[in-house]
C-alpha cells in the first residue's frame, strides 16, 4: 500500500532526450543563483537556473493542479491513477493538457518528447530521496522523463502548508500573479483559524487516521503524513501508532483481529479509497468493538493529495464542522 513498471525500444527517445536536455534549466549544488533569468531552489536542495523562464512544463497531476491554481498551465501531466476518478483532482479542467499516464509507474515518455518540455515539476520525497514519478519500482521508460528537462518541485515535509508555499514560490517564479496567491492564502488562514477554534473547544478529542484494505487494518503514521501533522499542530489529537511497519513506515499494519488496539473518539478514513475502506471494516466482526465505529463517529481525511490553498480551505472547513459535532468521550 503506497502513499498513493513502456515501449520496448527507446533509441529514438534517448537521442531526443539528450537534445532537449541541453535546452533545459541547469541544476547547481551551490544554492546561490548564477545570474540566470529564472531560478528556483527545489526540494532536493539544488538551485535551478535558466536563461529564459520555462514555459513548456510537464508535471505530476497534483503538482499541475497546484500550479494551475496560480495560473500556470502545463503542456502535459502524468497521474498515479485515472484522472477522472482521483479525489485529489476533482474539479480540475485539463482540457488542452496531454495526459502521459494514468497509472503509478507508467509514463509515456515517447509522447513526452513530442511536447518538448523545458521543465518537469513534481514533489520531492525526502524519505525516498526522489521526485514523484521517479521512485523505485516505476518502469525504466518512465524514468526517461527526467532526461528531457530538469525535475524540480518543493519537498514533502512536516506541513502541507510548506508544500503549497513551495508551489506558490515556483508559480511566482514562472510568472504567476502574486495577488492571486495572496488572496488564496488569506482564505486558507481564515479556515485554519476556524479549525483551531473548534479543536480548542474539544481539547481531549482523539482521532485515528486509517485505511483498511484487503486483510489489513492500516493506521497512518502522522510523521509521514504532513496533513495529519498539521492537524496535530492545530489542536487535534491524532494518535501516533506505536509500531510503524519497518520497511514502509507510513503505516502500522494490523490484522483485523487486532483492529481494536486503539480506541479513538473518531475514525478518519483515507478518502482516496472511501467508501470502500469503510465497507471493508464494516464487514469485519471486530468493527463493533471499535467504539468510534460503533458510535458512527467517522469521516474522511485528505490523504497525501493536498497541494492547493483552495482544497485545504475546503477540507479544513469540512473537518471543522465534524469536530464541532464530535463527542470527545467515546474512546474512554
UniProtKB/TrEMBL annotation:
Leader sequence residues: 1-27
Record carries keyword Transferase: no
Superkingdom of origin: Bacteria
One Gene Ontology term, aspect cellular component: outer membrane-bounded periplasmic space
Residue span(s) of domain Fe/B12 periplasmic-binding: 55-330
Pfam families attached to this UniProt entry: Peripla_BP_2
InterPro entries assigned to the protein according to its UniProt record, in alphabetical order: ABC_transptr_periplasmic_BD, Bact_iron-sidero_bind
Gene Ontology annotations of biological process type: iron coordination entity transport
Keywords in alphabetical order: Signal, Transport
Subcellular location as annotated: Cell envelope
Protein family according to the UniProt entry: Belongs to the bacterial solute-binding protein 8 family.
Full protein name: Fe/B12 periplasmic-binding domain-containing protein
UniProt source species: Actinorhabdospora filicis
